[in-house]
Amino acid sequence: MPDTILMPAGHVRLGSNAGQPMTRRDGIAKVTGAATYAADNRPDRLLYAVYASAGIARGRVAKLDVDTARAHPGVVEVYTPENRPALEQDPDEKFHMFAWRTEALQNDSVRYANQPVALVVAETLEAATEGARLLSPEYEEQPARIGFDNGEIYEPGSTGIGGAVTFSKGDIEAGRKAAVRTTETHIDTPLQYHNAMEPHAAVAEWDGDLLTLDCPNQALVMARDMFAKYFGIPGENITLRSPYLGGGFGSKAIPIGPYILAILAARELDRPVKIALRRDQMFGPVGHRGGTRQVVKLGTNADGQLTALEHNATSTTSSFDEFIEGAGNASHNLYASPAISTAHKGVRMDTGTPGPMRAPGEASGSAALECAMDEAAEAAGLDPLEFRLRNYSETDPASGKPFSSKALRECYAEGAKRFGWATRPLEPGTMRDENGHLVGWGVGTSLFPAPMFQALATATLRADGTATVATGGVDMGQGAWTALAQIAADGLGLPAERVEFLAGTSLQPDGGVAGGSGHTATAGGALFAAGSDAIRQLAELATNDPDSPLFGAGNAGVEARDGRLCAADDDSRSEAYEDILARAGLTALEGSGTGGRDPSIGEQWAMFSHGAVFAEVKVDPELYQIRVTRLVGAFAAGRIINPKLAQSQLTGGMIWGLSSALHEEGIHDLRSGRLVNGDFAGYHIPVNADAPSVEALLIDEEDPYVNTLGVKGVGELGITGTVGAIANAVWHATGTRVRSFPIHISALLK
Amino acid sequence: MPLSISLTVNGDRHDVPLEDARATLLDVLRERIGLTGTKKGCDRGQCGACTVLVDGRRVNSCLSLAMSMDGADVTTIEGLAQGEDLHPVQAAFIEHDGFQCGYCTPGQIMSAVGLIAEGEAGDDPERIREGMSGNLCRCAAYPGITAAVIDAQRRMAEAEDERKRA
Description:
The complex is a heterodimer. Chain A has 16 helices and 30 strands. Chain A is of the alpha+beta class. Chain A folds into 3 domains: about 5-35 and about 455-595, Aldehyde oxidase/xanthine dehydrogenase, molybdopterin binding domain (Aldehyde Oxidoreductase, domain 4, 2-Layer Sandwich), CATH 3.30.365; about 40-145 and about 200-280, Aldehyde oxidase/xanthine dehydrogenase, molybdopterin binding domain (Aldehyde Oxidoreductase, domain 4, 2-Layer Sandwich); about 290-450 and about 605-750, Aldehyde Oxidoreductase, domain 4 (2-Layer Sandwich), CATH 3.30.365.10. In chain A, strands 5-7-3-15-12-13-14 form a 7-stranded mixed sheet, sandwiched between helices. In chain A, strands 9, 10, 11, 16, 17 and 18 form a 6-stranded mixed sheet that branches. The two termini of chain A are about 50 Å apart. By secondary structure, chain B is α+β, with helices and mostly antiparallel strands. Chain B folds into 2 domains: about 5-80, Roll (Ubiquitin-like (UB roll)), CATH 3.10.20.30; about 90-165, DNA polymerase, domain 1 (Orthogonal Bundle), CATH 1.10.150. The model of chain B has no long low-confidence stretch (mean pLDDT about 95). The chains are: A alpha+beta, B alpha+beta. At the A-B interface, α1, α3 and α14 of A face α1, α2, α3, α4 and α5 of B.
């Protein structure tokens, strides 16, 4: 892919800053402790709020010892359903497609363990914590419905947010009949909890009916407007500040009960209030990934090609709202099959409502699909990579549309080469290392859509040749501040150091949602368009000014480079931005831009990022302890704005895959309905020593259709493919097929 | 019983009246002294985000009662750089992209500084990974963290050698 391309709009090029492995712009702030996360704010007269968590999973709160809590030194106020001030928005009403029902003390019911049942506000954190403990709730408890076999199974209204519940293409019955072999793979995946390192937190301060809210958030303007509804004020009255998020992973986009209560307390008490969830409270009102029970049935012909692909999933949701992990949808767009059928059911349980968690649907669905593909390859007597290549889709299997770009073949080839796949024996259980450990190699394919949302941006060129760009974009660790600034600088034809980049608050133009792996494409598109707009105006000035060396060059005849407009066909004719502005008597010039996708693009093209992940595991032949000793991923995701940051996103995603494969699961006590491992001692995520060798290769991919920038996304891609690759490697080491995640030692004991 | 402790934090002495004996070192640093670089990830010693050096030793400040720290010499993330000059571990974390969201980073860096001072891991990646495994990173920036610690350790060892030769 060329480093520099001329954009259709003329004037500006993408590639001077974009494409460079720049270090993070927020690096110094993050390594010195200067980066301020929400809970780091300490306004004067600050009060601390702690909520009391429900200790049962279903029933009602019969009694709270409010008097004792109130009497504790330092406690200022205790809110319960009896005295909670009114809200303008019912927390049990779904008033927005991204709003989930939440608990803000609207009544005394308990619908899952760890939901808020009271809020204690105090002069110190210690007093608030003790006050919450002293409430000593008593309950009227009902039997908890937890586990696939104990909840009501029902037909859901959608998967994810507005996704289809069922899908079919071709004649599944005919496909089954045409098969010479069929396999049926059953996979269970557990409830998973986002557990960003930064617990959800908010600091709320009112000034009359103006609210300043420091709160980690992935969708600033949308969330601002949702918060405003609860308090009956215009969205503009709220300044939502989220310059740094300590991780989001999908859990930090929408208002939740604890935030609403803290904001309410701040208004009632006329003092700023801080709330920071405890780690155990991160297993409650902040969403999670629903568990799934999946069945994948594959039919293959004598050539090892799929004749039928069926993928059905039952996904857990709460008793009172719906978010269905759309696992079956992972089978729509990857492998070629004349017949595809997917369907979902829901199962209602007494947990909080699930929500989008990094690769929602794709992560769990890919795990099952990749395991199933491996079983089908084994049945066909084929190498699993060869089997995947035989089922390579040249057009989108679901829609038949062409892919806007698809360098998956190159991903397979480069990844396999780097990993050393060619020497893999077909039979399982045949490789041992020098210590006698069983060694297995597995492969999985990564796939993630390349969506775009809506975003706005402005770009202001100043008389001194510097610029300021603004969009309410969000950096939750993916590197948006850096990558977006690179794009913005190219949009203005300026070196990055001459561009001031403003983001991270609701005061800036709506930067859209940091989610769905679409933020760089969307907010980046808006920034690039805003810069181009400013440069277009600058070119108008120069080419119409007889005193400019560019006079008469015509608007399309100039390019912006390094702070100068240059005649496209004659390098000797050029002029600095500051000279053009000075002669025009302007102190500044402002451009604006939008990011988004014309729906007609989606009608023409299927747009996905792809990848191939290769895993090596070593299994102790006596203890069956499993170690992932190597992961190699090769990924194609269109234009890569910053390879250094993209690699970090991808390796981070792959380690999330490792976590799904071997570590994390929410375990509920079926009798009480309470989580038994709601902390980092029990809810395992990988530590450094669990991921000794993880490598992401970036495969060149030019995509002229996906958007102006040619950018897809890398935030979620790395999880997909990895879970299955590890499970398949475990089979290759041990001969045991994985039926549920995470893979326990007990599953391998013979 | 009114209590008071004296802490030296990053070279500055702080006399902290402790009206509440339940306060942890972490909460005293963050909420009373106002050094918020040290982060709270779990408040029970399971994640390492709150790692600081106490008398040169890395500890989880969330598990340390402030009362028991009277007279301690504490180094936090804010005390590592010398003015504009980053500590070699800080610089290496930026260079090797040893973080994403940055929330666990102060703890990772303090832990790395402690690990290098302990002198047990050297530049052996496996021992560094083990030695850094008390610090969780949900973004999973582990490959960069390990590379950063190896790099910083080498640079610091080289600088030390040069100092000795001089």
